[in-house]
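Ticket #4471: structure export looks truncated?
Reporter: QA, pipeline team
Priority: medium

Steps to reproduce: submit the single chain below to the structure queue and open the exported record.
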Amino acid sequence: MFGLGWTEVALIAIVALLIFGPKKIPELGSALGKTLRGFKEELHNPNEETSQEKEEEK
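Actual output as written to the record:
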């Protein structure tokens, strides 16, 4: 995973747990998931503004 070994991943997880606490970690994961889902949707289905900008460039 990104060239990291299990030791590094475990260390990062422990530090994140100490910084954010056990209650905040699921909220952060959920927010990250929603953000990534929205980003993927925009890549597959660009909104009208993007379509209008492309038409104006032509």
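Status: closed, not a bug. The export was complete when the record was re-opened. Leaving a note from the reviewer for reference: The mean pLDDT is 82.
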